[in-house]
Amino acid sequence: AQSVTQLDSQVPVFEEAPVELRCNYSSSVSVYLFWYVQYPNQGLQLLLKYLSGSTLVKSINGFEAEFNKSQTSFHLRKPSVHISDTAEYFCAVRVSGYSTLTFGKGTMLLVSP
Amino acid sequence: ETGVTQSPTHLIKTRGQQVTLRCSSQSGHNTVSWYQQALGQGPQFIFQYYREEENGRGNFPPRFSGLQFPNYSSELNVNALELDDSALYLCASSPRTADYGYTFGSGTRLTVV
């Protein structure tokens, strides 16, 4: 069975600083990887995904994540965060051939002025 | 194009009661999944419906049941509510091939007292 580990439950950072949210997964078969963001009292929004091809994927709002198969990681990065990036971020994995998602426990990104 | 809508947004029930949560999938999506998100946790897969039949189930007891209707909308029913059932219940829809991830609704916050 697959699993997802998000190593940090909370990451405090100052506005305009860089940030990295870590995600590691375990699976014996091919996987697809996703990052979702959840703002307070809202559902999940897809931030970015890795299905195949280039291992570096980017979102429209400046986030990027790199799939590293040897380290089974899919860390999320942003070079300069904004106050509005404050939210909970979830890493998720889907095993090839299956349609269900397995989520990590989430990382709360707290951006302060 | 409408997204995924869930109703109600909030609900308070007494232990032992039964509850029905509803979900309208995004236009063009024929697969619906339900997830339970307990406080401070990542979403956990309950079950998935495709063409009105259950198409996968997570580690949840039989008192969690569901339906999918011909228009692809769905219901989640929980019988004999327990205090630990208090959570945010998320509905997600996708095309049969979920390569583009899921579209999540904003969820139903269920509180069992």
User: CA-to-CA gap between the ends of chain A?
Assistant: 41 Å
Main sheet of chain B, how many strands, which sense, barrel? 7 strands, mixed
Major sheet of chain A: 6 strands, mixed
Structural class of chain A: mainly beta
Radius of gyration of chain B: 13 Å
Mean pLDDT over the full residue set of chain B: 92
Structural class by helix and strand composition of chain B:
mainly beta
Order of helices and strands of chain B: EEEEEEEEEEE
**Biggest chain pair interface:** A-B, 25 and 28 residues
Secondary structure: helix percent of chain A: under 10%
**Low-pLDDT ranges of chain A:** none
Number of helices of chain A: 0
The coarse overall form of chain B would be: globular
Helix count of chain B, per DSSP?
0
Tell me what you see in this structure.
The complex is a heterodimer of chains A (113) and B (113). Chain A is mostly beta strands and 113 residues long. Helix content of chain A is 0%, strand content 53%. Chain B is built from no helices and eleven strands. The model of chain B has no long low-confidence stretch (mean pLDDT 92).
Concise summary:
Chain A is mainly beta and 113 residues long. Chain A is built from no helices and twelve strands. In chain A, the strands form three sheets. In chain A, strands 2, 5, 6, 10, 11 and 12 form a six-stranded mixed beta sheet that branches. Chain A has a four-stranded antiparallel beta sheet with strand order 3-9-8-7, with no helix packed on it. A two-stranded antiparallel ribbon of chain A has the order 1-4.
Strand-helix topology:
The complex is a heterodimer of chains A (113) and B (113).
Chain A: E1 3-5, E2 10-14, E3 19-21, E4 24-26, E5 31-38, E6 44-50, E7 56-58, E8 64-68, E9 73-78, E10 87-95, E11 102-103, E12 107-112
Parallel strand pairs in A: 2-12
Antiparallel strand pairs in A: 1-4, 3-9, 5-6, 5-10, 7-8, 8-9, 10-11, 10-12
Chain B: E1 5-7, E2 10-13, E3 19-24, E4 31-37, E5 44-50, E6 53-57, E7 64-68, E8 74-78, E9 87-94, E10 103-104, E11 108-112
Parallel strand pairs in B: 2-11
Antiparallel strand pairs in B: 1-3, 3-8, 4-5, 4-9, 5-6, 7-8, 9-10, 9-11
